[in-house]
Amino acid sequence: MSRNRPYRHPLGVVMSHRIRNRRVQKAGVAALIAAASAVALTACGSSDSSSDAKGSTSAASSSVTSSKSDDTTIHSQAGKQSTTLSNSAAGTAQATAECQPGTLKAKLDSAGTSQAEMNHRGTFLRVTNTGQETCVISGYAGVALEGAGHTAIKTTARHGDTYFATDPGAHPITLGPGKSAWADLVWTTTGASTAHAKYLQISPTGSNSHSTVAFDQDLDNGTLSLTAWSSKPPINS
């Protein structure tokens, strides 16, 4: 045994290792306890998170239900408005239905016969609603020339401005019972391929239904110019 080294009993070494092992064991137990606590806390936290999620889902469901309810109300109101508009439109359509040929009477208006200038002659066409209901007429009249014995004469009708009047263009004109519309009718008399007319067919709506009036005129090439129907006599100012 050397005097320079301190003496240590073997049991002391053993005791020292035991103490260290106990410390390690205690540290391990403490770590396990801490881990268990963390797991427990995590579990509690998950429970709270799940609860919040359920609450959010419930709120979202409530929001969707409210939205659906609002949509239903909107659609219901829109349906009522559509029904109201449809009824209103139907009433308007009924009040402004197109004039039927059987309720219209066409003739020449003597007020237009003053149109005479530079080999141009003119007169007014006048159509009157003889029915009991208000109706609408628009566009251009149909016209055709007839000779002696009501023989057909080849006729050319030109729509637009005439020598004496500006064409208002096709547009709807509301005619109450007894009310009239006018169009300007003009031709030339230069002697070019003169057509000797005796009658004029006037179809207010351009249909086959027409009135035949006396029209003793000589006109060039069987050609007539006319404006669209107007609510007033078509005289240029």
Number of structurally distinct domains: 2
Query: In CATH's first tier, which class of the largest domain applies?
Result: Mainly Beta
Distinct helical segment count: 1
Can you give the mean pLDDT?
A: 74
Coarse shape = globular
Largest sheet, if any? 6 strands, mixed
Strand content: 25-35%
Tally the beta strands. Answer: 12
Integer-rounded radius of gyration: 51 Å
CATH topology (fold) name of the largest domain = Immunoglobulin-like
What's the CATH architecture name of the largest domain?
Answer: Sandwich
SSE class: alpha+beta
The amount of helix comes to 25-40%
Pfam family, one: DUF4232
Region (Disordered): 46-96
Biased composition (Low complexity): 46-67
Domain DUF4232: 99-229
What is this structure's SSE topology?
Blueprint: H1 10-95, E1 104-109, E2 116-117, E3 120-129, E4 135-137, E5 142-146, E6 152-153, E7 156-159, E8 173-175, E9 180-188, E10 194-203, E11 211-220, E12 223-226
Parallel strand pairs: 7-12
Antiparallel strand pairs: 1-3, 2-3, 3-9, 4-8, 5-6, 5-10, 9-12, 10-11
